[in-house]
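Hey team,

Filing this mostly as a record. A colleague (T.K.) asked me to run one chain through the structure pipeline before their review meeting, and I want the input and output archived in the tracker in case anyone asks later how it was produced. No errors, nothing strange. Just documentation.

Input sequence:
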Amino acid sequence: MNREALSKLQRKNAGERKLKSDVLRDEIKVSTRTITVLILFISLIFVWNKVAIGTSPMIKQGKLDLSDWDMQEDGMLTLNGDWAFYWNQFIEDIDTSMSDGYVHVPNVWNHYTIHEDNLPGFGYATYALHITGVEGELALKIPPCSTAYELYVDDNLVAQNGVISRSASGAVPNYEPKSVVFDASRSGFTIKMFVSNFTYARGGIWYSLSLGTKDQIEVLDRSITYKQSFIVGGIATIMMFCVCAYCLGIRRLSLIYFVLLSLFSVIRIMAYGDYLIMQIVRSFRLAVILEYSTLTLFPMIIALFLQSLMKSKRNYMAATTIIPSSIAFLLTILTPVFFFTKLVWIFEAWGLIITVSSLFFLTREKQKNNNLLAAGALAIIICGLIDILYQNCVITAMGELSPFGYYLMLVFWGIALVKYYTDMVAQSRLSLHKANQAELAFLQAQIKPHFLYNALDAIANVCEKDGKKGSDLIVDLAIYLRNKLQFSSLEKMVSLEQELDFVSKYFTIEQARFGSKIRMEMDVRVSRAIRLPALILQPLVENAVRHGISKNACGGTVWVSIYYLNQDVLVEVKDNGEGIEPDRLALLLSEARADSGVGIINIHERLVHMYGKGLDITSAPRHGTCVKFMIPEGGKHD
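Output structure:
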């Protein structure tokens, strides 16, 4: 290898190393920014949680003093704190000194340690809280916080969900929100909850109870209902638009994936808040299976949807999610509830990993609309992280935000999808325009050699007999070729005067060949200033000559008639030539026709493209042919 070749190879290798280094640096920069945003947002959530908790009275050792709390001015509060706890007991007469200890509510009792033993998921217990310093009419909001419970206020049963039991055989699980009203005396009252769980992998009171006035709890109920109705209704509307778009012809995988995302989002949202899904399916197991199966399939659909919009095929996330998501889905529908609910943290972690990975791939892609896709992914990631922390009782001051995350995700991705299809349609139109231009160029290439051959042959014959006439024909031909065949696009418009002049010069040259055997008559009853597509009329006259009257032994006549029909202009080219056989006439405007002709099909398609309607051809053997087309609204004048 000579020195010059070695130097080129070294420069090439150095360039490749620099390119790889730049790509790696960009990827590290993108990853750092994404992680920084997530850490900053979660830190703000923890700060907000601490501030919110610090403003409410604290429950300590099963007691809450509300002497310094005004429900009307300070608002309702969540009953979060240390409740008295009695494991595997339903205690009628509460004596906090006899409790097994004080446990934090909300939380799952799997996290509790009683007598140095970690509690299992299955079991039953009593929770107790004594409240003083408040009187009058109060209300409680009890979310679906356990599979079965009975809630008492001073030994009065005020709310029940499912059927509690000391064994699995007698327990009946259910998820139903409750709002109850009761009277409290200033001397104090005791809230007692009997809770049992023989269904889920985790038991306990895992969501906060809210205490307030009757009006405050009613406002809370309405806000939960309105929020869910608004989000579900919005997503359902988006989903229906997508279904209609698919039915109308947009048969794209990305649209199918988006509809699935919308459907899964609706199911997921109805599993939050007041657990509306239970009111629809009326089956506890089916409701739980729908909740968890959509959780397992969601990451796969997200990856498939995002990859369907990416130009690059380097995203392997879609392929790697199908098998794990399918296995997790089968586990949710084939195994008992207590088994697959043990795996919820795996399902949630898997979903976050896939979504974050998809976000990483999006930020790497230099592609239009990726900012919208990344914003949607970031919305569901942040809201999902907050909900995981809330459901695991790490933060308690905020409610579940995933419904808003799903809604924002679909709004951002829906806009991106619309822009994607808009760009695709624009690109398709551009490609069609280029194809039409190429088709016109091909049509011109067909016409020019054919016409030149016949014209030159005819001029040569005339020159032998009449040099002056031959000279005039050569001038006509030169003008014809210079001015009449220089079209740059199918949409180019010319005046009727120009097109008729084009036809006249063509026919003059053809008459030099055929003599008085062929004749042409024009009947023009419209303004010659009207505009029509270039290279439309002359090919029709040429067809009438070539395939019609020139084949008759005695020749024939071509009639060109142009007149107004209502507000439109009707153009008619008629001959008394050989006519067309019915079988051939049926195929004349079909792409399946065998002969190439001089572009009848091209003219027809151009008219359809510009005006919505093409050529109308009638013919009969030995009775000639008539070709008509319409120029809407009388054409456009200069």
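Quick notes for T.K.: The CA atoms of residues 223 and 229 lie 10 Å apart. The chain has a mean pLDDT of 81.
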